[in-house]
């Protein structure tokens, strides 16, 4: 079972785990643990495959920073020709710092502040995906104050049936907070066409993550196609259709990577009919399989009839198991013949601090290095300093080379923003 979930970049050689051509133990020894390790070759390979699957229509890949906003990953994707999708002012700042041009950037998100909208308009980005009429009116006012016309796409909730691994990653069903309800969209877009400081350029949807059937894409595009006809009849000139992300990743619990040929057959014919540029926003698809989390086993413990493997990484490093009931394949960096059923837990003072429960796996012992697979997406970006635990280091591997690309936080970093002598103000 284990071998089926490993990418070539994170395979064992003679029973010893490697990250591309670098032994995992060497990285752990030099960078310390916990540490996230990312494979440049996996990202390159996935970008090439996804680009190939989109042939047949004008298109642009916009990597979703929320999955992993590490600077080294952004630099690599920019070099490959990717644009980016951001959902906050901080992500916009990161994207510009990584060298992405204004026209490489799409800004989405259901709760953009006035400050963030102003920053997006002033930067002159490619598209701002609006999610409500109230946001549209605010954006029009801000663009007028700036003396600009804001390029607008509308995130539509297509209200399609979606089956995902967890309810938190379904985003396109009726009643979700995301997007403009489908039945309300014509009226909101009609309002936009009367405003002076916005230009209606696109329609957008994001139906969910980890979509193991492509029917939601088909159903959503059918609805966007009908809406596009109505919007064009109102006088809009649509340039883009944005289908978001959602492509699944194999985490090792019976999942499989997507059939990109079948995905092409669903997406490309529908977009051809619309005569627009296709925008896609993959995040997890690039980042998840590109990364592992390295952790050191601290102790073994038996309590209440259960065996515990206590590691130096837990929910503060990888929240997905606790938050989403997510599965990550875990193995010692050096193969062991013995197997055991254990809970793999971290050092955080929470009962919800675990990486795996009742997991049958190779029997890890104190001092062993653990490799937690498919941890490149929603790992470091969702990590925290709870219990005043400094955040992990991040490492990029490229063939025989590796480098620490984000330094491990120090205790001093935990208190850097605290004010020793606060400036008290009277009411």
Structural overview:
- The chain has 427 residues and is an alpha/beta fold.
- It has 2 domains: 164 residues, Beta Barrel (Lyase, Ornithine Decarboxylase, Chain A, domain 1), CATH 2.40.37; 175 residues, Alanine racemase (TIM Barrel).
- The chain is built from 12 helices and 21 strands.
- Helix 5 packs across helix 6 and helix 7 packs parallel to helix 8.
- The longest helix is centred in the middle third of the chain and has 20 residues.
What keyword list fits this structure?
427 residues, alpha/beta, Lyase, Ornithine Decarboxylase, Chain A, domain 1, TIM Barrel, 2 domains, eight-stranded parallel barrel, 12 helices, 21 strands, 29% helix, disordered N terminus
Brief digest:
This protein is α/β, with parallel strands linked by helices and about 425 residues long.
Could you state the oligomeric state of the chains shown? single chain
Largest sheet: 9 strands, mixed
Which stretches are low in confidence, meaning pLDDT under 50 for 5 or more residues running? 1-6, 168-173
Between the first and last Cα atoms, what is the distance in angstroms?
63 Å
Mean pLDDT: 93
Q: Total number of helical segments?
A: 12
What is the highest CATH level, the class of the largest domain?
A: Alpha Beta
Report the CATH superfamily of the largest domain. Alanine racemase
């Amino acid at each position: 079972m284990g071998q089926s979930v490993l990418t070539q970049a994170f395979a064992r050689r003679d029973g010893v785990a490697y990250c591309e051509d670098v032994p995992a133990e060497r990285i752990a020894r030099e960078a310390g643990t916990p540490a996230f390790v990312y494979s440049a070759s996996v990202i390159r390979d996935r970008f090439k495959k996804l680009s190939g699957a989109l042939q047949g229509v004008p298109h642009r890949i916009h990597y979703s920073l929320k999955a992993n906003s590490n600077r080294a990953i952004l630099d690599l994707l920019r070099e490959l020709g990717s644009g980016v999708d951001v959902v906050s002012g901080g992500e916009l700042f990161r994207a510009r710092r990584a060298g992405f041009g204004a026209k490489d950037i799409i800004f989405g998100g259901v709760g953009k502040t006035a400050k963030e909208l102003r920053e997006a308009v002033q930067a002159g980005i490619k598209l701002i995906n609006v999610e409500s009429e109230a946001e549209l009116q605010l954006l029009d006012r801000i663009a007028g104050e700036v003396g600009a016309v804001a390029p607008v796409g509308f995130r539509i909730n297509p209200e399609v049936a979606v089956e995902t691994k967890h309810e938190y990653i379904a985003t396109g069903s009726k009643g979700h907070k995301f997007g403009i309800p489908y039945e309300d969209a014509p009226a909101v877009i009609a309002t936009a066409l009367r405003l002076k400081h916005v230009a209606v350029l696109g329609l957008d949807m994001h139906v969910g993550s980890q979509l193991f059937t492509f029917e939601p894409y088909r159903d959503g595009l059918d609805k966007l196609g009908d809406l596009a006809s109505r919007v064009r009849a109102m006088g809009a000139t649509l340039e883009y259709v944005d289908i978001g992300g959602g492509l699944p990743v194999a985490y090792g619990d019976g999942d499989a990577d997507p059939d990109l040929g079948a995905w092409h057959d669903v997406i490309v014919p529908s977009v051809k009919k619309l005569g627009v540029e296709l925008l896609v926003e993959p995040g997890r698809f690039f980042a998840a399989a590109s990364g592992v989390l390295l952790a050191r086993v601290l102790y073994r413990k038996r309590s209440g009839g259960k065996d515990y493997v206590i590691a130096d990484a837990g929910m503060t490093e990888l929240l997905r198991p606790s938050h989403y009931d997510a599965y990550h394949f875990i193995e010692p960096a050096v193969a062991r013949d013995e197997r055991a059923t254990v809970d793999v837990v971290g050092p955080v003072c929470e009962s919800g601090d675990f990486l795996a429960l009742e997991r049958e796996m190779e029997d890890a012992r104190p001092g062993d290095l653990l490799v937690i697979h498919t941890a490149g997406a929603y790992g470091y970006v969702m990590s925290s300093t709870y219990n005043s635990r400094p955040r992990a280091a991040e490492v990029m591997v490229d063939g025989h080379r590796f480098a620490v690309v984000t330094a491990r936080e120090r205790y001093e970093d935990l208190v850097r923003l605290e004010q020793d002598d606060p400036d008290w103000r009277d009411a």
